[in-house]
Design goal:
Layout (H helix, E strand, L loop, with lengths): L7 H5 L3 H13 L10 E8 L15 H12 L2 E8 L4 H6 L5 E5 L8 E2 L4 E3 L1 E6 L17 E3 L3 H5 L1 H8 L4 E3 L3 H9 L5 E5 H8 L2 H7 L5 E4 L5 E7 L2 H17 L1 H8 L8
Parallel strand pairs: 1-2, 1-3, 7-8, 7-9
Antiparallel strand pairs: 3-11, 4-11, 5-11, 6-9, 6-10
Helix pairs in contact: 2-11, 3-10
């Protein structure tokens, strides 16, 4: 069971002041020479994806911080371009960005892909007092089911077969709105990343709506997703990859996950 009453920030993140103090230490050992000018590169990223990308959080969230540091070590300065999740690859294909952050291999065909650097862990949740937890993917063929954009294509197979048979299946972009619909009984099942779920349950508006609705039941029926970055050209991809490998070798890659308390999201 997942309790809506516990704050993700309080339970899963180091205090913000401490996090802000520790992050600079991760980049100090491999700082480029002051004579080297970093080349700005536009990076498309989802405009709302806590806890992976969080405006106002030191480092910007683990996904943002990893990409920023890997690019810096390769000689580039990250310039964020916030877009809808469904528009990440399109931003690169159309020239609005040189990099799409947080994509999978299937959706980025024809682009240069980085190694995987993050793992999303998906689950199917329901309100335990109202709806029996799903026991198999076929259970998603009936009742109100809500998911994020692209879920049908991402999971494919049995998942796609089940939801195609369900007239009450929808995909929407706002995670906060998804949770509110679940808590208010508008939908019965919600397909969501586990850490995003915990984050939003700590948000006051969601907590207020969901706090009196009882516990959430989670069914881990879905495969996880290894997250990559897609690049318009191989030279930039190779520089990013060298930066990632440098972080792995000196331990700062794993340390970032520890600081954000997202070790379970390691690839």
């Amino acid at each position: 069971m997942v309790s809506p009453s516990r704050s993700f920030l309080r339970r899963c993140l180091l205090p913000v002041a401490l996090l802000a103090g520790l992050l600079p230490a991760l980049v100090a050992e491999d700082e480029p020479s002051s004579a080297e000018a970093l080349v700005e590169v536009r990076v498309a990223m989802a405009d709302s994806k806590p806890p992976y990308i969080v405006e106002g959080l030191p480092g910007g969230g683990v996904e943002y911080a990893l990409a920023e540091e890997a690019l810096r070590r390769g000689g580039y300065a990250l310039v964020p371009v916030f877009v809808g999740r469904a528009d990440l690859v399109g931003a690169v294909r159309e020239g609005r960005a040189a990099v799409a952050l947080g994509v999978g291999e299937e959706e980025a065909e024809g682009l240069a892909l980085s190694p995987g650097f993050l793992r999303y862990r998906y689950t199917v949740v329901s309100m335990a007092l109202r709806t029996e937890p799903a026991e198999e993917l076929a259970d998603l063929s009936e009742g109100g089911v809500l998911a994020f954009p692209g879920a049908r294509d991402l999971f494919g197979g049995e998942y796609a077969e089940a939801v195609e048979a369900n007239p009450d299946y929808r995909e929407t972009a706002s995670t906060e709105q998804q949770l509110l619909e679940l808590c208010l009984g508008i939908v019965d099942q919600l397909v969501i990343d586990r850490f995003s779920l915990e984050w939003y349950l700590g948000e006051p508006r969601v907590n207020q709506m969901c706090g009196n609705q009882g516990e959430l039941a989670a069914a881990d029926l879905l495969s996880s997703q290894i997250v990559q970055a897609a690049f318009a050209d191989e030279e930039l991809r190779d520089a990013f990859t060298r930066g990632l490998l440098s972080m792995v070798e000196d331990g700062s890659f794993r340390e970032l996950f520890r600081l954000y308390r997202l070790q379970a999201a390691l690839p």
